[in-house]
Amino acid sequence: MKSLAELQAIKDRMKSKVALREGYGEIRVVVGMATCGIAAGARPVLNTLVEEVNNAGLYEKVSVSQTGCIGFCQLEPIVEVIEAGKEKVTYVKMTPEKAKEVVEKHLKGGKVVTEYTVAGAN
Amino acid sequence: MIRSHVLICGGTGCTSSGSLTLQKAFNENIEAFGLAEEVKLVQTGCFGLCALGPIVIIYPDGTFYSRVTADDVKEIVEEHLLKGRIVERLVYRDEVADETVKKAASELSLSDTNFYKSQKRIVLRNCGVINPDDIEEYIAMDGYAALGKVLTEMTPEEVIKVVSDSGLRGRGGGGFPTGRKWALCAPNKAPQKYVVCNADEGDPGAFMDRSILEGDPHCIIEAMTICGYSVGATKGYVYVRAEYPIAVTRLQHAIDQAKEYGLLGKNIFGSGFDFDLEIKLGAGAFVCGEETALMTSIEGNRGEPRPRPPYPAVKGLFNSPTVENNVETFANIPQIILNGAEWFSSMGTEKSKGTKVFALGGKIQHTGLVEIPMGVTLDTIINEIGGGIPNGKKFKAAQTGGPSGGCIPASLINTEVDYDNLVSIGCMMGSGGLIVMDEDNCMVDMAKFFLEFTVDESCGKCTPCRVGTKRLLELLDKITQGNGTLEDIDRLEELCNYIKQNSLCGLGQTAPNPVLATLKFFRDEYIAHVVDKVCPAGVCKGLINYSIDKDKCIGCGKCAKNCPADAITRTDYIAPGHKLASFTIDTSKCVKCGACVAGCKFDAISKK
Q1: Cβ separation of A64 and B3 shorter than 8 Å?
Q2: 3-state SS record for B470-492
Q3: Residues 3-42 of A with CB under 8 A from B
Q4: What is the pLDDT of residues B516-539, one digit of tens each?
Q5: What kind of fold does domain B355-438 have according to CATH?
Q6: Which residues in chain A touch residue B106, judged by CB atoms under 8 angstroms apart?
Q7: Complex ipTM, two decimals?
């Protein structure tokens, strides 16, 4: 180790990998992963979300996890965004492409992508 | 992309309760469910709740599973990791904390439990969080940042000043101010100076240092290097007992990694400062935990203490100026450097700053490792964090400091635990072993147990310790066998004080402490042993007798079958309402093992 910059570089690189262990961030993104969700393709959605959140450097603020059946099986895959003090946003019939958009616009930009929400879809 | 981390405790406690087979089962199941790309398995150090091991924590949910077996793994992987449904039946909830009972498992966090609620983890901050075998995980948690700061921005004097101002005192038991120790060594000129880490944790029931080395070995390496820089030493030794194989392996691995990353060795951080570190294995002699004996042992000689002065700061290892600190003391250093002296001194009491790690053992629900701010009461440690005494028994006393310490009786349970408060009640902080005793423990027997230990461990160099402790033990033996007199109690006390004043090293000077403390708080028990010839707790075999109530005995003969000494025989007496003749115990043959009582379903055998 020859300089502090080198140490900092390792720290930056590793931080995203251990941030997961600090529990939930300010924003929780939950993917319905019951049988219905998995059958409808929730796995790739979940993986895209995890990847995009990390790529966008949001890993300290946003935590992605899965949950059981949300109850709206015909609209799966469902992704919910839960943020303290704000109304819960429910995205339905998600795909990896839509997930990318949600990370970019909603989680990063702070704007709900209304056309994918349960209200917008109806 | 990894979305979930499964943390499995790899401390000694959970390893012996089967965490290695668990790791294997997780690997197989994660593979079988095709989750290898999404879930990462991490082996960590001790989480602290050893009684409930093996422990598994799953992030980001922070779900805390306890007593997990290999058979549960498939369910956890399929339900939790694949489908996101928490396996409710394995989630740890402590009965006493209301919040944990009310909350749904998905919302339950570790900090809600009584066990963690009152804790403040500074020394143990990385234990159970990072993989101790991965230096990069340590770096991610601000690891080596303190060393970087010290080497690039601070002078040695500034480092010593921060440590002094923080109020940190030696955590090995003595409580000597760490900053002063460093300041005493720094000005001494010598071609070679040394930094020594005392990891020869010998107190029965203590496992604080072991858990730190197992869970966060890099923090010790970092702290010793910082110490080396501030006192001008370029060589360090960690003296660790060979009985700690996991700690030794992980520390060696950490040292190798640190060398590979250039965090040990030549010209660290381009500052021109060199530091090298080596492990010395101890063979397990208790006296080697004493600083001068430890150094003698590192030098390759028989581990015997030497008189002080000269103090190690002037003439220590290989007759060179040396700083020796305990593992837990060192573990505080990087955080003090990063957060400042004021941050550290804001915790704790007036003269005892920061936190203290305790290893809870004995008659307590949550056997394990806890870290609390100085000044928390014993009551909080035992009844809240420790979960109280099992089986509805009453708390009698807690032994701190192992064979060198004393006991705190139930009447002083509200004592705020810090160095000076414990000394003022005739106790000592010790290194952090805390053995809890309930009404079934005999205090005379307890003192005898520790004396047996010191008699075994006395190195024999000085007479007061070698012969004195032996005579003490003989007196205690006499008392527990029912042959003691009141004069013996006086003799005991006189001898204790003599040994305390005249022994060469800490071992002898503190060996009589368990006797003195029990004499102070439980003199009535000693008197019961010598005057009434009874052991109130029913422990001392010489003073108890088993007898069978002939009217309660139905004559089943189970006791006679259990008896290893053929001391139980049938009588001619048939109790009214019973069909078979009752049994009786020949006390001259009885070996007082208690096997008869354990087997009797009719409550007919009593112990008096």
Answers
A1: yes
A2: HHHHHHHHHHHCCCCCHHHHHHH
A3: 3-4, 7, 10-11, 13-15, 17-18, 20-21, 23-24, 30-35, 38
A4: 999 999 999 999 999 999 999 989
A5: Ubiquitin-like (UB roll) (3.10.20)
A6: 67
A7: 0.78
For B417-471, the pLDDT digits (tens) are 999 998 888 888 888 999 999 999 999 999 999 999 999 999 999 999 999 999 9
CB contact under 8 A, B3 and A38: no
Domain B135-344 has CATH 3.30.70.560: no
pTM of the predicted structure, to 2 decimals: 0.88
In DSSP terms, A77 is beta-bridged to none
- Fold topology of B443-532: de novo design (two linked rop proteins) (1.20.1440)
Spelled out in words, what is the top-level CATH class assigned to the domain B545-607?
alpha beta
Would you call A20 and B60 a contact, using CB atoms and an 8 Å cutoff? yes
What are the structural domains, with CATH classification, of chain A? Answer: 24-121 (3.40.30.10)
Which stretches within B392-462 are classed as H helix?
Answer: 419-424, 443-457
CA-CA distance, B553 to B563, in Å (whole number)? 16
Structure token pair of residue B165: 């101002």
Q: Does B82 touch chain A (CB under 8 A)?
A: yes
Q: Tokens 């110490």 correspond to what residue?
A: B227
Q: B368: closest CA among B13, B45, B49? A: B49
Domain boundaries, chain B: 4-113, 135-344, 355-438, 443-532, 545-607
At the fourth CATH level, the homologous superfamily of domain B4-113 is Glutaredoxin (3.40.30.10)
Please answer whether residues B539 and B440 qualify as being in contact, where contact means their C-beta atoms are separated by less than 8 angstroms: yes
Tell whether the torsion through CA atoms of A91, A94, A96 and A98 is positive or negative. negative
A119 is written with which tokens?
């209200």
Q: Nearest 5°: CA angle at B72, between B70 and B73?
A: 70
